[in-house]
Amino acid sequence: MIVQLGFIGGAEIDRYGNLNTSLIGNKQHPRVRLPGSGGAADIASQAQRLAIVMPHERHRFRERVDFITSPGYGYPDQAGPAGIDWRKRVGLPRGGPSVLITTWLSLALI
After folding, report:
1. Which among 56, 85, 75 is positioned nearest to 16, based on CA atoms?
2. What is residue 85's DSSP assignment?
3. Contacts with 57 (C-beta within 8 Å, 6 or more apart), sequence order
4. Residue 39 and residue 56: Cα distance in Å, rounded?
C-alpha cells in the first residue's frame, strides 16, 4: 500500500527537510535523547507527499540537524546535490517533504 500523504513532526528540521527525532547534541554523548522514529522514517521515505508539522520555535530550525531520523532531501555530497537526485541516489522511491506547517501560538502568547 502506498501512502499518498503523510504527516509527521520532529524536534529539529533543516533547510533540506531532514528531521531529527532521535537526539540533540553529539551522537556519542547526547544532551537530550528523544523518542526516535516511531515509524516516521518509513512515512518520510515512502509517502508520495509529506507534510511536516512543527511548533514555530527558533531552536527547531537548524542549518543541519544533529541526527537525520527521517530523511528529507539529504545533503549535498561528492556524488551530487541535495534534493530529488539525492533521494534517488540513496534509493528512496518517492516524494519528500512538500510543505512545512508551523504554529504561531508561541509568538501570539508573547
Report:
1. 75
2. H
3. 106
4. 23
Residues 41, 64, 46: CA angle, nearest 5 degrees: 20
End-to-end CA distance of the chain: 44
Summarised one tens digit per residue, pLDDT across range 9-20 is 999 999 999 999
What does the pLDDT look like over 59-72, one tens digit per residue?
999 999 999 999 99
The whole-model pTM stands at 0.87
Helix (H, G, I), strand (E, B) or coil at 44: helix
The 10 Å CB-count burial string (b at 16+, else e) for 54-82 is beeeeebeeeebbbbbbbbbbeeeeeeeb
Residue 107 has pLDDT above 60, yes or no: no
Can you tell me whether residue 49 is helix, strand or coil?
strand
For the record, the C-alpha cell of 16 comes out as 533540506
Which segments of 23-110 does DSSP mark as H helices, in order?
40-46, 84-89, 105-108
Long-range contacts (CB closer than 8 Å, 24 or more residues apart) made by 83-90: 83/16
